[in-house]
Amino acid sequence: MVVFHNRYDLSVKLETHLGAMLDQLKELVVQLNDKHDAALGEEPSREIMKIVNAHHQSLAYLNAKAAQIDGEVSALEAGNEALRKQAGP
Questions:
Q1: What's the mean per-residue pLDDT of the chain?
Q2: First-last CA distance in the chain
Q3: Is the dihedral of CA 46, 50, 53, 59 positive or negative?
Q4: Cα(89)–Cα(87) distance, integer angstroms
Q5: Distance CA 17, CA 77 (A)
Q6: How far is the C-alpha of 28 from the C-alpha of 20, rounded, in Å?
Q7: For residue 61, what are the CA distances in angstroms to 22, 53, 67, 68, 78?
Q8: What pTM, to 2 d.p., does this model score?
Q9: What is the pLDDT of residues 49-79, one digit of tens each?
Q10: Taking every pair of C-alpha atoms in the chain, what is the biggest distance, in angstroms?
């Protein structure tokens, strides 16, 4: 009988803690939704960020291509220098 009461008391405490945790979780979800809704109201800044990100991606692509071309030019210069040395004065 004592074991039954202990288990019952533990289950009541557990239910109380879980209920409190559920309430906290509900409140957190409401806060997150409110913040998300407020952030959606700032559409101009989101559009600006999209434009800036697109420009950044374009610049990164151009930078990679410039590095590739620089490597190819260096290889051509090295080949040209080797041909000049072979041809002599």
A1: 83
A2: 110
A3: negative
A4: 7
A5: 75
A6: 12
A7: 48, 12, 10, 11, 26
A8: 0.46
A9: 788 889 999 999 999 999 999 999 999 999 9
A10: 110
CA–CA gap between residue 66 and residue 11 (Å, rounded):
68
Per DSSP, 87 falls in state H
CA distance 2 to 14: 18
Location of structure tokens 């913040």:
35
Q: How many residues does the chain have?
A: 89
User: What one-character-per-residue DSSP string does 53-66 give?
Assistant: HHHHHHHHHHHHHH
Q: How wide is the angle at C-alpha 42 spanned by C-alphas 52 and 26, nearest 5°?
A: 120
